Amino acid sequence: MAAHFPRLSDLLLLHVSTTVQPANRNLLEHEVSRRFFDTVVAEARRRNLLSDDHFSVDGTLLDAWASMKSFRPVDDTDPPPGPAGPTSRNSDVDFRGQKRSNRTHRSTTDPEARLARKGPGREARLSFAGHVLMENRNGLVVDAELNEATGTAEEKAAIKMLKRIPGKRRITVGADKGYDTGNFVDTCWMMNQRLTWPESGCTRRLMDGRHGMMAIA
Q1: What is the model's pTM?
Q2: pLDDT value at 18 more than 60
Q3: Distance of CA 24 to the CA centre of its chain
């Protein structure tokens, strides 16, 4: 009988759903989701579906449940605007001409959400950063993390997940150019992990003399 495992997106949402929603930040619920995730991974390992030597890291932005209308100045003591009328869920707010940033503003309904965009020219949204560690034999997710959507979110989450890989053997880690930072490269080097990069992500860091732990995919 063929093995059926949840999709990457399903596993990631399962792991972080109780964290993204402020009303559900319950330790018991979080532990249940994590244990279920770990059980699925253990079953895949029992069926010899996982690689123990070759991994990839990746991340994405997950929309927070907070609306942009809740993103207000941190020194604003006035309550957020209420409904404009009997049939309106939220009052209209005009943000034109206002400069809003994570340094000066916070969401009143989800203070841990951060304003972030997936790329240049893309719309900035209140988000969290979701991350996965995948083994490369069948592309199954073996670990997941959620953190604030900051400029260092990807590398911090990747390092945390890579440190949880059992054993001391040398492994290979695939990553895109978003992980090409001095801290991530140095940490992987100290953990005896060999980085592989897509050709389009080749940068000057690949030429730093550590050819034994880096390669171009």
Answers
A1: 0.72
A2: no
A3: 19
